């Protein structure tokens, strides 16, 4: 399909949709002075389990660097403007941290020096290409196994076994301990102090996703610190709220102007649980299951931006992309917190996904729909390996339909 035909198709889809209250009825590709408008066009680069980069542990430093540059160059070619680079996947580091060991995903051995500085290189090379670099941290995940003996001998989790909770086949730091909260902030802020990152980025993992038949054992911490709360759930939410508030303050103090964003699971609460929630029937709710009050963080502007992972197709019965985009737009309205939408590029063409995801136009339709909401200021795609492979051309279709011109990220 040629460019003009694609453009006509996009506008036809748009005009067939019912205009939302306060929404614009045309895609917002330019500002009033005909310059490309500022919008987030981001991609996640996941390093946990070598998901996106490096392709395998133990590659020579030059090869790792070359693979990273390929991802950055691909982002530029697709007229993206921001890279969310995972630099602390499992209580480890992709920079020379004085607090935590080098990541095993670099060399195959946790604590082994890879011979170069991935985060420093990523920041420098991204900026040289006009890309923002958001340093992506996972606050509490220690390991994707339950054997502390597999951690580097210097690992803080081995020095402080009382900080650690095994759950669901993984190890986690206990968010209910003030000393843990202080430590993980120091570890993350070290990167902010060392490098001119454009933002700090958290994903959706706070307390772990529930595992049937298992209990997250924080009894001792709750006995010590939970007395002022009406329930353990309220106490857990306060622990995560404190992390978010304190981290925001720490970022401002460490490197003023650096932003703070979070990409939570797409459903805060179902409306059947809370009338303020979304018209969904999701099996997980961040407020109740991860103890992350994501709506409050947005409404009270504790964070600079939010990227809800709306990883479902338009019309999906349990969690409709259209309904969730509308809900998040209403939450963000008037808050000062930027709303970007996390997009499940990895589902496009994937085996076992619903028929909508076998259509290369589905993702482009998401951007067309979201353009009706002034509150939606861009999109972030999961993830870099899928941007590179693009098996059914879904990303190419997004670029052709929506990214005809470059755009700067919002500030």
From TrEMBL:
PANTHER family assigned to the protein according to its UniProt record, in alphabetical order: GLYCOSYL HYDROLASE DIGH (PTHR43405)
SUPFAM superfamilies per UniProt: (Trans)glycosidases
Signal peptide extent: 1-25
Gene3D superfamilies registered for this protein in UniProt: Glycosidases
Alphabetical keyword list: Signal
Record keyword Signal present: yes
Keyword Ribosomal protein assigned: no
Domain Glycosyl hydrolase-like: 39-357
Pfam families: GHL10
Organism of this sequence: Streptomyces camelliae
Listed InterPro entries: Divisome_Glycosyl_Hydrolase, GH, GHL10
Name by which UniProt lists this protein: Family 10 glycosylhydrolase
